[in-house]
């Protein structure tokens, strides 16, 4: 079932639901012994429609479970066929006859209500899944914005920038030294899930700047800068 078919099925469910609610309303005054069942069934159907036909719900077509919407449509079509007495009911009213019988037994009403509740839960879970994806996307974007804003506030010593004129004669790590730390930094830089900053801390003169220059040169050679 493609997207257009899903849309058509959703519209069909909403229209059928409205028709059934109206038909059920016609029984309420005439069938006293089943009035509670009729009211409960109408409420269940209206509750289903409120999920599918709410413009503020954010339920996307792609998230609706296609099998469930089709099965729901078939269930409502069968239900409409049972409760729609058509012209026969109107003819009985014109003759003054009020022996209108509710066509569903209580066990049937309960079964249909159970099916409707299952469909509603399925559609509602689809809505929640959509909202969680949206929330995750927004949270990720917000986090990235916050990181960029924080980084923009950091003071910059332009003379200390890598490859600057003032930095051209500074030393780098001797070959074979500080290899473990360099490997840690290389692993961090290659990780898409890594933190935005790798913080080198230590007392003055312990080689932080030397390590930074060495790693930066390696990044430049590997075209990672």
TrEMBL record:
Pfam families: NPHP3_N
Keywords on record: Repeat
Ranges for domain Nephrocystin 3-like N-terminal: 183-223
Name of the protein described by the UniProt record: Nephrocystin 3-like N-terminal domain-containing protein
């Amino acid at each position: 079932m493609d997207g257009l078919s899903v849309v058509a099925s959703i519209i069909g469910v909403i229209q059928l639901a409205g028709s059934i609610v109206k038909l059920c309303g016609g029984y309420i005054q005439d069938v006293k012994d089943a009035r509670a069942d009729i009211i409960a069934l109408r409420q269940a159907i209206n509750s289903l429609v409120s999920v599918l036909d709410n413009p503020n719900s954010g339920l996307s077509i792609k998230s609706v479970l296609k099998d469930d919407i089709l099965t729901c449509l078939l269930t409502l079509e069968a239900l409409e066929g049972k409760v729609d007495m058509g012209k026969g009911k109107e003819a009985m009213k014109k003759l003054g006859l009020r022996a209108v019988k509710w066509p569903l037994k209580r066990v049937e009403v309960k079964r249909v209500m159970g099916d409707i509740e299952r469909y509603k839960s399925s559609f509602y879970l689809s809505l929640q899944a959509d909202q969680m994806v949206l929330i995750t996307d927004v949270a990720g974007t917000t986090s990235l914005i916050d990181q960029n804003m924080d980084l923009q506030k950091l003071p910059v010593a332009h003379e200390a920038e890598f490859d600057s004129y003032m930095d051209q004669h500074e030393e780098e790590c001797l070959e074979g030294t500080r290899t473990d730390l360099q490997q840690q930094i290389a692993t961090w830089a290659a990780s898409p899930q890594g933190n935005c900053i790798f913080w080198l801390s230590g007392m003055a003169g312990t080689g932080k700047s030397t390590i930074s220059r060495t790693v930066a040169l390696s990044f430049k050679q590997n075209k990672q800068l």
